[in-house]
Design brief:
The structure holds two protein chains of two kinds. Chain A has a single domain, classed as Orthogonal Bundle (MetI-like fold), CATH 1.10.3720.10. In chain A, 75% of the residues lie in helices and 0% in strands. Chain A contains twelve helices and no strands. Chain A has helices at residues 2-34, 52-59, 61-93, 99-111, 114-125, 131-140, 154-179, 183-192, 196-225, 228-233, 245-255, 259-285. The relative contact order of chain A is 0.13. Chain B is an alpha/beta fold. In chain B, helix 3 runs antiparallel to helix 15 (341-351). Chain B starts with a helix and ends with a helix. The chains are: A mainly alpha, B alpha/beta. Chain A binds chain B through residues 41-43, 62, 122, 126-129, 137, 141-144, 146, 148-151, 234-235, 237-240, 251, 254-258, and chain B through 77, 81, 84-85, 105, 108-111, 192, 194-197, 206-208, 258-263, 265-266, 269-270, 273, 275, 394, 396-397, 400, 403-405, 407-408, 410-411, 413.
């Protein structure tokens, strides 16, 4: 009898396991193996080259530039989009007129594909006759800007696009969490004479922590994953100033056809993401109240 | 009759995308006809895709026994990526239009065959030599022809005649030298009361693939960027540095061009909006400018310095190795047909791409078209001065290195000489394996 249950258990697990192994674990292991091989070319098959790809990685300036860009992209997008999402959720959760409209407006960027968003922003940023320059010129009589054509401003311009795209999406999670907070808590706080700010700080935010963990893990992943707009807006330029790790992996694998080296870059990304995800779970776990 | 219809519809289904269906019916359909898969990119709007489809249908209708599945594969970059991915998976298309500069990459991956292998008759061999030599520079290496020019272009100078008249210049005379570009540019720059520029003199886009237009400048400065074997570059030549310095100084020294990286895609729009009085861009934009410029405009050869000069650009036909003899023969025949004067004239008129053979320009259709619209002739005339577009082994990597160097110098992050010397060093490290 006990043996039969064991079989049932595996049978129930198997659909999920098969997919997980085929599409997640097998490719990951295969990537790690490929990273120790050279790139196959025409009639030259891949051969084992040990850590040579990793040595090349350490010497590759572009890799370090891209990693630094990705760091600033993460620092620029994660906290801002989470705080903005929280602020927007608190606002559209309150009793204000036309709040459905406000919710919809905040959520709209999420519904749009990132490629479409990038095209909209490309128009905003266009020097001379783009929206930003029309406003600058029309209202303040300032000269034309060239945000995407300047290595000092291009990354910031991309960060703004990512925040615009992401904040609405995170807002939906906060909004759902806010609505699950029992109203009795607010009533009790009012009876005790707690201020709104005190209520927010000591009741609402702690109760939102599980959501915050979920959102921040997503935000971290997105800061590595969101690269579609780079293809449309800058192609990683000028001089790699707006290139991110995943974009560089794509370039290496499918434009330069350096698949061995691309596998090495992917391993770096895998390691980074694992460390970040595990770190977040350990760090936040102690501070989170699960009900 | 009925059986034929059923068979045809079944055949039609077989040509669909479903792998499963194709696997089941391919042995049978082979006995009916030769199936060709043909990838093509589109870089200039919708009319091009329709024209290719029309021409393909016309060929299939006239040639019983050949079926061609023309697949729109996205941009040039997407097309080469798809074709190479398919080739690595063992199922490449038999025929594809791919950027001519990817020739060395395709040879290196060992996925294409030279057209010489298929040209058996004297007539075929003569056909191989019937294209403009400027286009063949990017299509031949080691004495063999790997690509047949089809959707080819070259950059030209467009100028706004109204702006010229307003600035007190002769509206019919574009600048013909580097100095004149600066001289005219200074007159054309318009500033408002606050000193903000509302119209620049000239616009040479530098986003995405700055090497292409920059190659116009290097050619005019009488220097070649890479050898024809594609295994040695010349990025740090003093003449290249000088050309880059000229490009930088158009903004820094002379103030006739906007600062920073200038977007390629927004350039025609900036021209229509009067933000610039002159622009350098592809002849592929000719029909676009003709339809949208709200003022009288002119098209001219790029200005000269030590000589006239421009790169060629655009896509060639390639035939893939992984095809049976019948398919290769059919592919060869189709390429011959579609590049013939009549078809090629239709293609050129629809898009603005430069017809790659002299006899196309002699057809009645082309004569009528160029009589009505003489600027279409400028690109052809420039071919006498044109050189091969920068192309090397590991082309994408090498051009990216070069593009990064140009961007660093244009944005003032590095000096021209320093940036180019670094680029040369990196390109050298990649290309030394190919000598």
């Amino acid at each position: 009898m006990a043996k039969r249950e064991w079989i049932y258990g595996w049978l129930f697990l198997s659909p999920a396991l098969i997919f997980l192994f085929t599409f997640t674990h097998y490719p990951a292991v295969n990537t790690i193996i490929s990273s120790f091989f050279s790139t196959p070319k025409g009639r030259r098959p891949a051969k084992f080259i040990g850590p040579e790809n990793y040595q090349a990685l350490i010497e590759d300036e572009v890799f370090w530039t891209v990693l630094e860009n990705n760091f600033w992209f993460a620092v620029g997008t994660i906290p801002t989009s989470i705080l903005l999402a929280l602020a927007m959720a608190l606002w559209v959760n309150s009793q204000l007129k036309g709040r459905t409209l406000a919710r919809m407006a905040y959520f709209a960027p999420t519904v749009l594909p990132l490629i479409a968003v990038a095209n909209i922003w490309l128009f905003f940023y266009t020097p001379g006759f783009g929206l930003i320059d029309q406003l600058r010129g029309g209202l303040f009589n300032l000269p034309a800007s060239n945000l995407l054509g300047n290595p000092d401003t291009v990354l910031a311009a991309m960060i703004v696009v990512a925040i615009w795209k992401e904040a609405g999406f995170f807002m939906i999670f906060y909004l759902a969490a806010l609505q699950s907070i029992p109203p009795v808590l607010k009533e009790a706080a009012d009876v005790e004479g707690a201020s709104n700010f005190y209520y927010l700080r000591r009741i609402v935010i702690p109760l939102l922590m599980p959501t915050t963990l979920f959102i921040s893990v997503n935000a971290v992943i997105n800061s590595f994953r969101l690269v579609d707009h780079i293809f449309v807006m800058t192609d990683g330029g000028p001089n790699n100033a707006s290139s991110l790790l995943l974009f560089y992996i794509y370039e290496t694998a499918f434009q330069y056809w350096q698949t061995g080296y691309a596998a090495t870059l992917t391993v770096v990304m895998l390691i980074l993401l694992s460390i970040l995800a595990i770190g977040q779970f350990f760090l936040f776990d102690r501070k989170i109240h699960y009900r | 009759m009925k059986i034929r219809k059923i068979a045809q519809s079944w055949l039609g289904k077989c040509l669909g995308k479903s792998l499963l269906v194709a696997a089941f019916c391919s042995p049978l359909s082979l006995s009916w006809a030769v199936d060709l898969e043909f990838y093509f990119p589109v870089a200039v709007g919708g009319a091009a895709a329709d024209t290719i489809q029309e021409l393909t249908d016309e060929y299939v209708a006239a040639n019983a026994g050949v079926n061609i599945d023309a697949v729109y594969a996205g941009s040039y970059q997407d097309t080469v990526t798809k074709a190479l991915t398919a080739a690595r998976g063992g199922k490449p298309p038999q025929l594809s239009v791919i950027l001519s500069v990817d020739m060395f990459t395709l040879i290196d991956e060992d996925v294409i065959i030279p057209f010489d292998d298929l040209a058996s008759s004297d007539e075929d061999k003569a056909w191989l030599t019937s294209f403009y030599p400027a286009f063949m520079e990017n299509s031949q290496t080691g004495g063999k022809t790997y690509g047949i020019p089809f959707q080819r272009s070259t950059p030209v100078l467009y100028w706004n005649k109204e702006a010229f008249a307003e600035a007190g210049l002769d509206p019919e005379t574009p600048p013909s030298t580097w100095e004149e570009t600066i001289e005219f540019g200074k007159k054309l720059v318009k500033k408002d009361a606050d000193g903000n520029v509302s119209r620049w003199g000239v616009r040479i886009p530098s986003s995405g693939f700055p090497y292409w237009l920059f190659q116009g400048l290097t050619t005019q400065n009488d220097v070649i960027l890479a050898n024809s074997e594609g295994n040695e570059t010349n990025f740090d030549d003093p003449a290249v540095v000088e050309a880059l310095q000229y490009l930088i100084d158009l903004n820094k020294e002379h103030g006739v061009m906007a600062p920073g990286i200038i977007e390629w895609g927004a350039t025609p729009k900036a021209f229509f909006e009067g933000q610039t009085a002159m622009m350098w861009t592809s002849t592929g934009n000719l029909t676009n400018v003709r339809n949208n410029a709200p003022f009288d405009f002119g098209v001219a050869l790029l200005p000269a310095n030590k000589r006239r000069g421009a790169p060629t650009g655009g896509g060639n036909f390639f035939i893939f190795r992984e095809a049976d003899d019948e398919q290769k023969k059919a592919a060869f025949d189709f390429v011959k047909w579609i590049t013939a004067p009549k078809q090629s004239a239709k293609w050129t008129i629809a898009t603005g791409y430069v017809a790659p053979r002299a006899d196309t320009w002699e057809t009645e259709e082309m004569k009528a078209y160029t009589k009505d619209f003489p600027p279409a002739l400028v690109a052809r005339d420039q071919l006498d001065f044109a050189v091969a577009e920068l192309s090397t082994y590991e082309n994408q990597r090498v051009t990216t290195i070069f593009n990064d160097a140009l961007a660093a110098a244009i944005t003032g992050k590095k000096g021209a000489a320093e940036a180019l010397a670094e680029a040369q060093e990196k390109a050298e490290a990649i290309l030394k394996d190919y000598r």
